[in-house]
Amino acid sequence: MTVKPKSIAIYGPGAIGLDMSVHLIEAGHNVSLIARGETKSKLQGRGIEYSSSDNQISISPDRFACTDSPRTLTKQDYVILTVKADALLDIREELPHLIGDHTIIVSATNGIPPWYSYLQDDTVCRYLKKSLPREQFLSCVPAAQIIGLIIERSVTREDGYRVFHNSGTGYVIGEPDHTTKERTVALKALLEDAGFTVQISDNIHRDIWVKLLGNIFVNPLSVMTEQTIGQMMGNPEVKARAISLVEEALEIGVRLGVLTRNDFSMNALIQRCEGRLAKHETSMLRDYKSGNPLELHRILEVVIMFADLPDMSYPVPALKSIRADLLEKLACRQ
Questions:
Q1: CB of 137 closer than 8 Å to CB of 89
Q2: What pTM value is reported for the model?
């Protein structure tokens, strides 16, 4: 143990949250999980079971705290948000109970988080006339204490308490002002000490959008086809449609000014999907099969929203078409 033990609350113990929890607990930190319903009951009763290709770890319930109310916890050194990006606004009013003057809030979600336009006066904010979600979120969460985190590990969860590491080794972290601070280096050391690999981004907004392109490439169509990533890549029509989705989302990111075309490689994305990700089901497909809400708003809807802004006004027929198809399929499920 080379990093002093910290108090760490993980809000959202899904696959990513449990994966983080296991490693942080093993590294000696005081971890509290915020969970509800059956997930809470299973974690309190059975603990956490972690498996990877070369390791198995059992974390007994007495090694961590688990609650459904942040009010029962003290102010934390770190609050790691691993809920779906769509849910960040729903939990915002509970977060102040965990946040002190020196708490670091780590936003570790796929998609575009509500704080994304913060400090983006030269890019995103040139087009936004108002940003109610950002204002709502930052009214409860101090913007100056946020660090963004991009997940570069593939993990899955079963039965609410079993987590399986499939591939990938770590994370990308970055400050909203695109600098590297002492706290950024400290977070990197904390995560590396727990066994993850960590890179510090010099532009977290760019890198979040690049990750978004990967999500748009595979997630929506995985629900429509109910296939693994490799199966989709083997279907020329599906693959072509996926490429058109990404091309539109890339153009919106370029027009916003959050990235350039040189920041993204379609060929590299396709190679990953045809290679190490080929056997994987997407998280969105797993949610669909489980009857859980799909993470559409902050992955798909937000890009369409930007495209429809008056000063942008860029047509995105492929994105709107997949949105319509998804909504129709969800309506049939109900």
A1: yes
A2: 0.95
- 75 contacts 3 by C-beta, under 8 angstroms: no
In this model, does residue 2 exceed pLDDT 80? no
Report how far Cα 8 is from the mean position of its chain's Cα atoms: 18
**Helix%, strand%, coil% for the chain, nearest 5:** 50, 20, 30
**Taking each helix axis from N to C terminus, what angle separates 317-333 and 204-225, rounded to the nearest 10 degrees?**
50
Ordered by where they begin, the domains of the chain are 7-202 (3.40.50.720), 206-333 (1.10.1040.10)
Contact 19, 162 (CB under 8 A): no
List pLDDT tens digits, range 120-156: 999 999 998 888 899 999 999 999 999 999 999 999 9
Residue 297 DSSP class: I
Residue among 188, 107, 202 nearest 151 (CA): 107
